[in-house]
Amino acid sequence: MFFSGLTEDLVLLAAAAAATEVLASAALRPESQLLGGTLIAGTDPMEVALTYDDGPNDVSTPPLLDLLARHNVRATFFMIGKHVRQRPDLVRQVHAGGHLVGNHTMTHPWLTWQTDNVIREEISGCSKLLEDTIGAPVRYFRPPHGARRPFVMRFAAQLGMKTVQWNAMGHDWDPIGVDRIVKEIQKGMRRARKRGRGTNILLHDGSDRALGVNRSDSIWTTARLTDHFARDGYRTVTVDAWG
Q1: What pLDDT does residue 14 have?
Q2: Which residue, 18, 74, 110, 222, is the most exposed by fewest CB within 10 angstroms?
Q3: How confident is the model at residue 30 (pLDDT cuts 50, 70, 90)?
Q4: Residues 44 and 26 in one domain
Q5: Is 153 found in the same domain as 60?
Q6: Are residues 109 and 228 part of one domain?
Q7: CA–CA distance from 219 to each of 138, 209, 242 (Å)?
Q8: Per-residue DSSP letter, 242
Q9: Is 95 a catalytic residue?
């Protein structure tokens, strides 16, 4: 009887450990729907969204906006509140250019391991700053690092926001060069197309560390991608086209 009870306890512990591992994995996988509905992309493989995280950034955001304007492309910018506070003029410039502005928290923490109160402060604080700055509601939220748990998404929804992830990433925060960044993104685009989905591309115009970080590789990558889109018939959209 003792060993039977012990065996049952071990089975339950193993099952709990496995469930925890699955949830931890889902918390960091951008396309996972296990923790709640997450907006990735639409069902038209020829639609592409360029999304930029961690701005605004006085070094890279203005030239990126100039490039997008020349190609008549609208993008989605997920902004960090501490940068918004320092450069509200850039936020208004992004919004005035017809781009979609989204919430990327106040300080860019790993939300999966934060308390509920910290999560509330990070998300609501950024939304308030953005809405006061652009004079319009913020309806889209991207968790830093893509890390989340159910409370993160529930609270974002309470503020009227949809949680947005991605399905193509260039690793442009690493010094790997434009050719490698483009190659990684094109790999994601091919994968999305095989699945009959649009492509939601993650790039960066800023950094969570500070303003002034050089993102010129991200800008050159954008130039290469927009040429590719025009040549091959892709249509660029902002993420609100998908839900």
Answers
A1: 40
A2: 18
A3: confident
A4: no
A5: yes
A6: yes
A7: 25, 19, 24
A8: G
A9: no
